[in-house]
Design a protein that fits this description.
Elements lengths: L3 E7 L8 E6 L7 E10 L2 H7 L13 E2 L4 E8 L11 E4 L12 E5 L3 E3 L6 H5 L2 H14 L7 E4 L5 H12 L3 E6 L1 H10 L3 E4 L5 H4 L3 E6 L3 H7 L3 E9 L6 H6 L4 H10 L1 H10 L2 E4 L6 H12 L7 E6 L3 H9 L6 E5 L2
Parallel strand pairs: 9-10, 9-12, 10-11, 12-13, 13-14, 15-16
Antiparallel strand pairs: 1-2, 1-4, 3-5, 3-7, 3-16, 5-6, 6-8
Helix pairs in contact: 3-4
GO molecular function: oxidoreductase activity
Pfam families: ADH_N, ADH_zinc_N_2
Protein name: NADPH:quinone reductase
């Protein structure tokens, strides 16, 4: 076994360009598998981590390998591992304290991975874990989405939106989404019932009496989302600020929960004004839920959409392309 690998690193928060370097191979503990990474995907959380925007939630030691999900092959297993063996094709999202999928190898807890869907390539499988788990937890764990519920999914043609529309339709919900003219055909093909062209229309003037909003944008889009909900409705945001509810439910210290309460004051006021609930979601890794997503994919009820695949050495270009916001579906980095 070699003792070094190539990885994409930052050395400080705010560093705009990731740099390819040789680093030591990861250490494998008793509950870990060592996986050779075939592909990883680009996610908005990669920029938030790079720019230091997630420091209130988690503060990383530098230098840091970026990357939050992957697909690959198990090379070896720790002594307590029971679910996987060398040679298994897997996909996963490492826990937040152990990210680093823009690399040739990763050591990852066996609970954070699942066998790769058999009908997907490694590149397609790498597109799924973070967006899949985030959306699964939003729809199942927070919203308890039911048939005929009306949900607005923001930015339907993006990496999260394309997965979310498919999952919501599989759960028999009525789906509205926002998209440009360029993305309209795509989101309709995925099953969206109503499409709002955000360049020409204001969704808050076209939609009313909705049960739920899945907010992937934050800012004004989130503020305006309160207006379309019926009393008792819920918003799940993955892009705005945590609130006190999030702090308490995730056992953050009192001072941090208080800080969340202060930064979310405007949202709390809107909750009361519209009699709805705002939820911030910082998803958790789960091999168990990835297995459920695997079943949906193998039953051909959900298919990941890929916009573009970049070679490993062009990870910086892949991140720059993602930041333009023009991608339809996921952006993948091919490592092997």
């Amino acid at each position: 076994m070699k003792n070094q690998m190539k990885a994409m690193l930052i050395h400080k928060y705010g560093q705009k360009n990731v740099e390819i370097e040789n680093v030591p191979m990861p250490e494998v503990s008793s509950n870990d598998v060592l996986a050779e990474i075939h592909a990883a995907s680009i996610n908005p959380v990669d920029f938030k981590i790079r720019d230091g925007k997630l420091r209130p939630l988690i503060n990383y030691k530098m230098p840091l390998i970026l990357g939050n999900d992957f697909s690959g092959t198990v090379i070896k297993t720790g002594k307590n591992v029971t679910k996987f063996k060398a040679g298994d094709s897997v996909y996963g999202r490492p826990r937040k304290s152990r990210i680093g999928t823009f690399a040739e190898y990763i050591a990852i807890h066996e609970d954070d991975i699942a066998l790769k869907p058999e009908n997907l390539t490694f590149e397609e499988a790498a597109a799924v874990p973070l967006v899949g788990l985030t959306t699964y937890q939003a729809f199942h764990d927070i919203l308890n989405l039911q048939p005929k519920d009306k949900i607005l999914i923001q930015a339907g043609s993006g990496g999260i939106g394309t997965f979310a529309i498919q999952l919501a339709k599989q759960m028999e919900a009525y789906v509205a989404t926002t998209a440009s003219n360029a993305g309209k055909d795509l989101v309709e093909r995925l099953g969206a019932d109503k499409v709002i062209n955000y360049r020409e229309e204001k969704f808050e003037e076209k939609l009313a009496d909705y049960d739920y909003v899945y907010d992937t944008l934050g800012g004004d889009s989130l503020i305006n989302s309160f207006k379309i909900l019926k009393p008792g409705g819920k918003i799940v945001s993955i892009s705005d600020v945590p609130n006190a509810r999030f702090g308490k439910e995730n056992n953050y210290p009192f001072w941090k929960t208080l800080a969340f309460k202060l930064i979310s004051r405007k949202l709390t006021k809107l909750e009361k004004q519209y009699q709805v609930q705002y939820n911030f979601l910082f998803m958790k890794p789960s091999g168990e839920q990835l297995n459920k997503i695997k079943e949906l994919i193998e039953a051909e009820k959900i298919k990941p959409l890929i916009d573009q695949i970049f070679p490993f050495e062009d990870t910086q270009k892949a991140m720059e392309y993602s930041e333009t916001g023009r991608a339809k579906g996921k952006i993948i980095v091919k490592i092997k």
